[in-house]
Amino acid sequence: MQLEPEWVAEQNRSAGRHLDHDLDHVVSVLGRHGLEAERIITEVAAFSVAAPSWAVGTGATRFGRFPIGGEPRNLLEKLDDIAALNNVTGANRTVSLHVPWDDPEDPAGVRQYGAERGIGFDAMNSNTFQDNPSTTDGGAVSYKFGSLANTDEGARKAAVEHNLYVIDLGVQLGSRALTVWLADGMNHPGQADFRAQFDRVADGLAQIYAHLPQDWELFTEHKPFEPAFYSTVNADWGTSLLLAQATGPRAKCLVDLGHHLPNTNIEQIVSRLAMVGRLGGFHFNDSKYGDDDLTTGSIRPYQLFLIVLELVNAGDGFMPTLAYMLDESHNVKDPLEDLIQATDALQQAVAQALCVDRAALKDAQTDNDPARAAEVLMRAWRTDVRPLVAEARRRNGAAIDPWAAYRASGYRQAVRAERGADARATGL
Ligand code: LRH
Ligand code: MN
Asked: Of all protein residues, whose CA lies closest to atom 6 belonging to ligand 1?
């Protein structure tokens, strides 16, 4: 089953009947404020966010899992689903793999299969937070007490080797980055030594970095808690920055939006990391309490707008080239519908951030006029940019209304019939 571009174009004929009128309106609204709609449409059309290979199946919590049926049973079917996703959004042109949940025997064949469907390979993810024979020296070691931070040399060695394996696999797939998220930490005060844990991780990252191809980057991903519930070695952006700086110039920090304690000012962290040239990428999602991995922009859309605005500031009016990826868990929605809505939320936030009159904002800041500054931001935030985003999708040959197009396609029913109601994808 494929969501063919011709079929999408057919859908656009009906979905697009009001688009030109709506476009004319927003073009004139923006024009009144000296803003070019054309530049915004072009920037949105250029934007793409990687789909997480571990989230095209149904997610779960320790309290249960409710399969949706028709989940991809292998990596090729995951690529089929991500190609279908990209055919309606036009903005998920890459997939981020997670090893060993994805561990293809024929990387060249998988790369070709993806290329034939317009899907490339984004940052690779290693996994030293679960014991898997393929990552624990055939089960000879365990990551129960950590991986790179473990006092057990065997566990540290296995963790480094696994990351080298993931890099080599990524090279064959055309990836250009490795994300290292470590669950390493403590559950009990005194269980380990903070400094010693940091030093062991820094040493492990240095060994991994030494194997990194010259055109690759390594991303350190911080997280305050879970699965460790007293301390996590790479708990916050400060530690992540220290690790990146200790590792090498092509080591950068990856910001997962869900990895911040309540009320953390994430847009300020983005500004700081960009300021020192250590902002590598993102795992976009949203959350209300912990690392809930909910739909991007579904709980705090204004925060997403402010984060994207910091990116536009870092890119001097354009979106900087970074590793943009989604990292979500879909417990009750169709995973593809959730990824469509997450991608749309990001496209809307990019368009709104590009509607900010940055010169007027700077004037208000210089004049210490917070009310005027707020007016500048709110005007952009309240601009209905949906026609701009729809036009960007139309120009990418994607769906003007991707969610409606996906629903109308009957894709889920078709893959459920093809793959089975109890088909289960590897991943979270
Ligand atoms: C950890 C995390 C990390 C992934 C995992 C799937 O919470 O965000 O990025 O490895 O989720
Ligand atoms: Mn993440």
From this structure: 428
